[in-house]
Amino acid sequence: MQIVTLIHEDNGVFGASFPDFLGCTTVAGSLDAIVAKASEALAFHIGGMTEDGLPLPQVRTLAQLRQDPTFREDSAGAMIALVPYAPPARAVRLNITLDESLLDRIDRAAEAAGKTRSGYLADAARRRLAAEAGVSETEMPVARAWRKKADRRQGRSTRRKRKRA
To answer: Which tens digits make up the pLDDT trace of 137-158?
Structure first.
């Protein structure tokens, strides 16, 4: 499945937002990087919604979105991209091999964080994947500015109820 993504450019910075996943945004310094970052941001956002027990929205096709006056207004001047999306899958048991001392350190860190070993490793993998997609701490203020700008375009409050990792 693919999700419709709006890409806006402002002074050489590209921002992506998702009409069906309100509040999910990301930024990149180039047009080539924004789609990869958008894909990772969408996966992170959906993962957060799933962990919070929130229902996922019904994903609309481009033809359905064309019927929405808000979408037509928000998409004015935007590029439209389709970002791959796979619904969250069930947990899968796996068998891995780690150095014993590394495993001890992981277990201590997981316990200190109040997490299971599996939860701790999954969080670490998500953070690493986000970092490799180019989502960095220095870009977070820019991402928040893009999110607020997208919210204002869509007439929503800029306050966020959900904590961001």
So the answer is: 444 334 444 445 545 544 544 4
Angle between helices 100-112 and 117-132 (to 10 degrees): 100
CA distance 6 to 78: 6
Report the sign of the C-alpha dihedral through residues 65, 69, 74, 78, in that order. Answer: positive
65 in a structural domain: yes
What string of H, E and C letters represents the secondary structure of 111-133? HHCCCCHHHHHHHHHHHHHHHHC
**How far is Cα 29 from Cα 16, in angstroms, rounded to an integer?**
12
Residues 6 or more apart whose Cβ sits within 8 Å of residue 52:
162
The domain of 50 spans 2-91+135-153
Does a structural domain hold residue 68?
yes
**In degrees rounded to 5, what are phi and psi of residue 5?**
-125, 135
Q: Say if strands 2-10 and 79-84 run parallel, antiparallel, or are unpaired.
A: antiparallel
- pLDDT digit string (tens) for 86-127? 776 677 888 999 999 999 999 999 999 999 999 899 889 878
> Degrees (nearest 5) of the Cα angle 77, 41, 59?
70
CATH number of residue 17's parent domain: 3.30.160.250
